[in-house]
Specification:
By secondary structure, the protein is mainly alpha-helical. The chain has one domain (2-123). It is 79% helix and 0% strand. The protein contains 4 helices and no strands. The chain is globular.
């Protein structure tokens, strides 16, 4: 049981840092780089701000233990969609293997968080 919680929290903290803290800190401390990842893919500037807001809200819902189950499920789904579409965007536009693999790696970590969240809930 304790092992499951440790695995869940390690994976979840990586997601919090990667999908929540990093984009928010860019917005607050280096706003000139907010759209550095989305502009080369052809997305409008406002899309980067929307992504940051959605990522931070999703991470908060995933990390907060009292988030209702359905909302937490949607947060995991939203973060997953974001990462899948990031992979697709890079695969179609710049075809850079490093840029294509990174969202899949983070998606794998998100999947570990989700799987172990369910194991914790099932085992009590």
């Amino acid at each position: 049981m304790k092992k499951n919680k440790i695995i869940f929290w390690v994976a979840t903290i990586i997601i919090i840092l990667w999908e929540g803290v990093m984009p928010l800190s860019t917005l607050l401390f280096a706003p000139q780089y907010v759209n550095a990842g989305t502009k080369p893919l052809g997305y409008p500037d406002y899309f980067a701000y929307t992504l940051i807001i959605c990522k931070v809200l999703g991470v908060l819902a995933v990390a907060y233990s009292k988030t209702p189950g359905k909302l937490k499920e949607w947060a995991y789904a939203g973060l997953s969609f974001n990462l899948i579409f990031a992979f697709i965007s890079h695969a179609c536009v710049d075809k850079n293997i490093g840029f294509m693999l990174m969202p899949l790696v983070v998606l794998g970590i998100l999947a570990v968080s989700y799987i172990y969240k369910n194991k914790i809930q099932t085992n009590g």
